[in-house]
Amino acid sequence: MGAFEPIGIRAAGPLRAIGVVLLLAMMVGTFGAQRNTSTPWPVWFGVVLSGLATVPVLVSMPAPTALIGSGAVTALYFAAGYADGPVFLAIPAVAFVVALTSTRRSWDWTGVAVAAGVAGLVSRGPLHHADGHMLWQCIGLAALAVAAWAIAASVNARRLALTERNHSLAAEERIRMAMELHDGVGHGLALIAMQAGAALYVFDRDPAAARASLTAIRDTSRESLEQLRSELDRFAGSERAPRRPSPGLADLDELVARVRSGGLDVRLELAPGPAVPLPVEHAAYAVVQESLTNVLRHAAASYADVSVQRDGNDLVVVVKDDGRVAVNSEIRSGHGISGMRSRVAVLGGRLAADRHTAGFEVRAVIPVGE
Questions:
Q1: DSSP H/E element including 155
Q2: pLDDT of res. 137
Q3: Long-range CB contacts (< 8 A, 24+ apart) of 206-214?
Q4: Which domain holds residue 340?
Q5: Cα–Cα distance list, 252 to 15, 255, 306 (Å)
Q6: Do 147 and 286 lie in a common domain?
Q7: Is residue 244 situated within a structural domain?
Q8: DSSP secondary structure string, 158-215?
């Protein structure tokens, strides 16, 4: 059946205080209920039994041990002939704490504890000639235990679901931030590397061109650092770091101009047709940006063609280059292509990336609706 988590009110403060008060009330109430009892056992022993039946509320122990122990001690209390009292609340209280603190099912062990308590009630009659409403007492004990377990299990399930949801949201945010950093900062670093290479190439014979490349490196590095700082501030929960607006189709000209400044000939054909939803615009921009980044880093290409066209209810984004380097495992397994594919898939689209006759091609088809 596997290991069970220890249970008990382990937190300091109000919860532990409630547990201590419950234990004291159980023992004091049991002492007061023994005035007219006819049991041959001493009163103090009944008080101890009632306390032991409630101890699992405070002491961490495996859930089966807590419930079976409480049920067995409660049964012994009744079988010894002690009078009715607050001991009826022992099993429901333990069942409540078990269901509230355990991540595994505990209804079966709650049933065992109730069965033990009912057996003790049933045995009290013939053993001590006790009169009373035994049937209703058994029903009441079972009803209290089941109700306590059901309420706590419901609260625990909602708490676990909320925790899981928060973890899922945090994971999604981390993935989003990783993609943003990869797209923005990674693209900037690729441009910086290309501009640095160009500057070194013309440093001696064309100082003006080298100066232009160094200026581009400065501007790109500032932009990348600003984006990195913004994302880190957001990751740290800083309120002074509003999310930067995601770029769209209107920003493609600026993107292409930056890549051209690095020495790559980029030809842009932009005809998106009627208004395109913003999420589609953002995804299309990300596909173009990442594709051009891969061209700069891996393709050794002399040019890249970028096409963004409307085809019926789809926006088709194609980035094609004449790269001469074979597609390696870094491109296939890296964050770039998988990130593009994820962005497009979320919108119900599809993305293909592979070599063509003259180089490498990325093609994304994204639905834009009616």
A1: helix 134-202
A2: 84
A3: 212/261
A4: 249-370
A5: 58, 5, 10
A6: no
A7: no
A8: HHHHHHHHHHHHHHHHHHHHHHHHHHHHHHHHHHHHHHHHHHHHHTTT-HHHHHHHHH
Q: What are phi and psi of 327, to 5 degrees?
A: -70, 115
Residue type, 299: A
- CA quadruple 220, 224, 226, 227: dihedral sign: positive
- Provide the domain count of the chain: 2
Comparing C-alpha atoms, which of 187, 226, 219, 349 is closest to residue 279?
Answer: 349
Beta strands 265-271 and 61-62: pairing type? unpaired
* Residue 297, token pair as written in the block: 């880093």
Distance CA 167, CA 176 (A): 14
Residue 93 lies in a domain: yes
What single letter denotes the amino acid at residue 83?
A
Rounded Cα–Cα distance for residues 183 and 286 (Å): 7
The DSSP secondary structure of 260-313, one letter per residue, reads HHTT-EEEEEEE--S---HHHHHHHHHHHHHHHHHIIIII--SEEEEEEEEETT
**pTM of the entire structure?**
0.53
Q: Dig out the tokens for 277 from the structure.
A: 């939803």
The string of pLDDT tens digits covering residues 271-325 is: 877 788 898 998 998 899 888 888 877 767 888 999 999 988 899 999 998 876 5
Is residue 216 a part of any domain in this protein? no
Does 230 map to a domain? Answer: no
Q: Are residues 136 and 30 in the same domain?
A: yes
